[in-house]
Amino acid sequence: MSNQPIKLPIDDLIPDIINHIKTEKSLILQATPGAGKTTRVPPALLNLFDGKILVLEPRRLATKLSAERVSQELNEKCGETVGYQVRFDKVESSKTKIKYITEGIFSRLILSDPSLKNISCVIIDEFHERHIHTDIALMLVKLLQNTIRPDLKLIVMSATLETQNLQEYLPSAKVLVSEGKNYPVTYEYLNLPDSNKSLFTLVPIAVEEVLKNNSCPGHILVFLPGNFEIKRCAENLKELSAKYTFEIFQLKADISIQEQQKIFLKSNIRKVILSTNVAETSVTIDGVTGVIDSGVAKIAGHGSWSGLPTLDIMPISQASCIQRAGRAGRTSPGIAKRLFTQLDYNMRSPFQKPEIQRVDLTQTILELKIMERKLKESFKFDSSFENLFPWFDIPSKNNVESSFGLLKNLNAFDKNNNVTEIGIKISEYPLHPRLGRILVESESKNILAQGILVVSLINEGTFLKRGNQSIDIAHSDIQYQIDLFKKIYLKESISSYKKDLIDFNATKRIENLAKQLCHSSAIHFSNCFKLISDEDLSLILLSGYPDRVCQIRSQSKKNISGRKEINLCLGGGAFISPSSVVQDSELLLAIDAEESANALSQSNSTQIRICHGIEAEYLLAAPEGFIQEYDEYIWDNENERVRGYQKLVYGKLVLEEKQIKEQNNKHEETLIKQLSTMWPKPFEDDKALQFLINRVKLAKQKGEKINIPNFLEEDFELLICHICENKKSFKEILEKDLDEYLDELISYEDQKILSNLFPSHIKIGKGRKVKVHYEEDKPPWVASRLQDFFGTLDTPRICNGTIPLVTHLLAPNMQSVQVTTDLAGFWERGYLEVKKELSRKYPRHSWPDNPKTAEPPEIILRKRNK
């Protein structure tokens, strides 16, 4: 039966497209949703090229539907002239000239054939969505065009396109615009009081309101974030469909071809189509006059811990809201009902941030490095990695550097960032490099089948529902779920408690992925359930997560909530989720975690959901750099001593620690550092040092040849090293006074010179010893009671009588009554006045008329009370 295609807005632009692409290598095509660009442009180019035409689509469903639609319009089966390829699914033949593929497939294709020798034209559809694979495809095609494939054609198509940056990137590309007719759309927003209702409640209410609205005589398209929401809303609409006589359709990736065709066939019965954002721009459904927009979608991101791709339900941008609403005005005026407030809309970002700025780049960097290697080997490219690839949007430096770091940890890159053989094997698997590394390690141990089940579990986020506290305790969440998955698959008995925890949709996804990986590896799926030892499981997981080793903190540091806290091998902390069955292992591999923005501290913000207990001995298999053995010497502030430890560490985790008891130079070095920092501790003060230095300074000023270091300044380190020699504690240092340490560093000759010229004490009167004070920038001085100087006729002197000592004469209360360097003059001129005043205050003390001849008081030695 002939499927005569209807006329679409893009048809008028086809001649211009053909004429331009004949002469130029690039074209930018802007066409509104429903214009027909996806299905009309590729077949229009069939006769222009000898090679194939690749059409890159952002989603699997759009890829399949587009190929099916074009095949129908060519009156052929899909797989003849037109085929498609998505992950684990391919329909094509030797006659296929147009091939619709998902963007991720393009990266795999160009890895196997860097020159795209059988491809004449690459069409990148829905460029405005800016998926990471879109940017990579654009970059790689431009690279080929500018080097080994100047004949390669490129068409970039989009529903909404900011063309200025793209034109600058593709300077030879002409911009063609297809202005499809748009009818007016009436917008309705959610009232604020209803904003707390769930989506499953809001959708039926909104559908009924739109059904009753005269502005919507046609079908209703409902945008929902994912399959789960579509299924729930479909169930909630059944009663309403009987009341208003409409059919409910679910537009999602896993529907059958028959269901797909029903959605697009004309019908007199109204349709309510529940769709993901695939219907936003990728797929056009005729006859839609009503749109209900949930305002959210599953936005691609990546787990900060696992690095694996994630699809998180998040608000869409204003541009996406406009695209969705526009679906209601393709054939006639329509209505767009938004399940959020106008204020919410106004607060949204105008456009979605490109994925290349927000997703993990590890897999991308690995693929680009392999392509770089192939280009250099085959085509003698000599540019560096940084200069070889012409990024459309340059990713953040931190993101790129962290990807390189992880690939080194996975042994995919060597120390010079060159791809290793392991890296090449990892790239053969359509998985994140962490999981690819696990499969490479599994294959080396002849347990690839078991490894496939492990990575399938991890890739799909496991299948136990979140938020539940586990009542089981086991060594590994992974092994625990493998055992449970096996029971599910073999339909063995499972307790009702565990059944309630299981997400059976997730188990189906895990099974499908595992079967697909088994098929591509020529392995029977049943082999996945063969036993795997704890050692093998630990080693394959460690190969993919060497940077995720953790250690339980001591019980004294238990989290205030009772949850066990852990230290991470790269630094920082986290705690084990109550939902994990791993609660008693000292060492763990943290496979997946979730972050909390509301946590009170950093260590509480990371909750480890999935982990695997690992024995310390297995960690020896980690990549180079993680395991280190070294001696560490630290200062024990409480006991004021150096302690040495022999440590075996994994990153920042201490696996083994032994105290080093024998004294060595490392103890001494640490003690020196501590003494330098805390000086003059452990001594009460360093007056002895000051005393020595000031005497030495005076000696040098007098021209004396004396060889005593300046311990207070440039030779301070010499003194510190001497004090700390063969010691490791302050207690050992205090076995001697500071004076003794100083004396040990001064020769006998220098000590003798210094003592003779600048004594520490002099004798006055009847032999009383008086300390000589030497202070910086002051002349030397002595002090004692006035009566002690009776009979001393002249000022005491030092340095062979060349320096008079400043003499402080003290009253009986030890307060100075006279300071002089002319003691004889004081006896003659000042003494009588002082005597008159002090004799009244201190009548019991001797106040002779002639102090020069008077006897000083006897020296009385008093025994100290002990």
UniProtKB/TrEMBL annotation:
Q: Where is this region: Disordered?
A: 842-866
Q: What Pfam family does this protein match (any one)?
A: HrpB_C
UniProtKB keywords: ATP-binding, Helicase, Hydrolase, Nucleotide-binding
Nucleotide-binding is among the record's keywords: yes
Gene3D superfamilies in the record: 1.20.120.1080, P-loop containing nucleotide triphosphate hydrolases
Q: Which residues form the Helicase C-terminal domain?
A: 206-376
Please state the span of the N-terminal signal peptide per the UniProt entry: none
Q: Name one GO molecular function term.
A: hydrolase activity
SUPFAM superfamilies documented for this protein: P-loop containing nucleoside triphosphate hydrolases
Report the superkingdom from the record: Bacteria
Q: Where is the Helicase ATP-binding domain?
A: 18-179
Q: Does the keyword Protease apply?
A: no
PANTHER family referenced in this protein's UniProt entry, alphabetically = ATP-DEPENDENT RNA HELICASE HRPB (PTHR43519)
Task: Report what the protein is called.
Answer: ATP-dependent helicase HrpB
Q: What high-level taxonomic lineage is stated for the organism? A: Bacteria, Pseudomonadati, Bdellovibrionota, Oligoflexia, Silvanigrellales
